[in-house]
Amino acid sequence: MRADGSTHTTAVLILGAGPAGLVLGNLLRAADVECVILERRSRAHIEQRARAGFLAPESVAVLREHGLDAGLRAGGQTHGICEFRSAAGRFELNYAELGRGEPHTVYPQQNLVTDLVAEFLRRGGDLRFELTAEQIHDRFGDRPLVQARDAEGREHRFAARYIGGCDGARGLARRTVTVARTVNEYDITWLALLAQAPPTTSTVVYGVHPDGFAGQMPRSAEITRYYLQCAPHGDALNWEEPRIWAELARRLGADRHGPLREGAIIERSLVHLRSEILDPLQEGKLFLAGDAATSISPSAAKGANLAVLGARALAEAFTRAVRHYDHTALDRYSADLLPRILRAQQFSNSMIELLHPPTGPAAAFRRDLQRAQLHSLATSRSHRDFFAESYVDI
Ligand SMILES: Cc1cc2nc3c(=O)[nH]c(=O)nc-3n(C[C@H](O)[C@H](O)[C@H](O)COP(=O)(O)OP(=O)(O)OC[C@H]3O[C@@H](n4cnc5c(N)ncnc54)[C@H](O)[C@@H]3O)c2cc1C
Hints:
There is one protein chain. This protein is of the alpha+beta class. The protein folds into two domains: 2-76 and 107-182 and 274-349, 3-Layer(bba) Sandwich (FAD/NAD(P)-binding domain); 185-273 and 362-392, D-Amino Acid Oxidase, Chain A, domain 2 (2-Layer Sandwich). It contains twelve helices and 20 strands. Strands 1, 2, 3, 9, 10, 11, 12, 18 and 19 form a nine-stranded mixed β-sheet that branches. The protein has an eight-stranded mixed β-sheet with strand order 7-6-14-15-16-13-17-20. Helix 1 runs parallel beside helix 9, helix 3 runs parallel beside helix 9 (303-324) and helix 11 (363-379) packs across helix 12. Bound molecules: flavin-adenine dinucleotide. Residues 15-21, 38-41, 46, 51-54, 109, 132-133, 166-168, 171-172, 192, 271, 290-292, 298, 301-305, 307 line the site of flavin-adenine dinucleotide.
């Protein structure tokens, strides 16, 4: 990177060091394309921020093909079964043996981020922590400019040929673009919990209960994620631990299916389920990837996977544009990625409808349909195959 007065110039400026920005940065470094990543948080913060865990086979393949899977190979666990519990009983869906016969790999997102930061720096990458991008100027021009501010309030300016907007759902890139968007606010809130406890079963468990969804997602031998549907503005964040465990046990049918393995709740936050689709994923020289490009609820574990996929596509397109002055892949980026985003959104939406108690005027009728869906998923081979394929697909 060159210093041009007080403005730093690079080929690709990446906003955000989440999975999208870090995969993009690593692939650009490997292709010898100059880039800088700006991240508003500290390194310690992003390396501890627990979020996703389930990686689809295609994400794992991208990481493997680009030499980013050492940690994943050492610490990732293969998962291929999910379980549904409802008033009708419980059934397992061994998706690794249905559909395309592929499992997930469970690897906590903070571990992946830690690996990707280390590898980016090892590849000689320029990563600026605690630098918040505040404004994007001239995104339709030849050399867009980003104004950023550090923790001491000093201003920094970066000029680039292209900007990778990978700064998440509430980042600057999403706020800047004026493209068309559709939104669904689901009016469903989850209390997202991390427990210092081994998973109760080695499978994902989806509890469909009239009082609200409850779920268990294994993360590691010592840590388990639980979700508990709760009132959007209620006091669930302040619930005592015994109350949380009692509610999880009730909605997951612990009396019939066995007690939960309890432990200290080490993290809790509220997740408001929301989807947003932007089209196109680009405006001028600013290209969006990951959560910046689409918001998707965690119900089907697609967000981090779409981030990896978008970053791979963007890295290839930027590389061709910067190294060979060939813009065809950049021109196609949005049209190529959108169908995959839409498919993930569609499946995620169907999971939301399957897992949560219907509300509104036709609630009782839709509850019956939900029962029919669960019955079909338990008994129909073709439905199970389709679910299995969609579950690991991105
Ligand atoms: C509780 C929970 C559970 C989830 N479970 C799953 C799962 O099992 N599977 C799955 O696939 N997905 C899951 N997700 C979604 C997944 O975590 C996200 O989709 C993923 O983090 C998206 O990656 P990203 O790089 O696009 O964005 P992010 O990870 O949000 O990274 C964006 C980065 O940009 C930085 N940033 C923001 N604004 C600026 C700025 N102005 N300047 C500089 N930097 C900025 C942020 O600090 C952040 O580090 C879950 C999410 C949550 C909240």
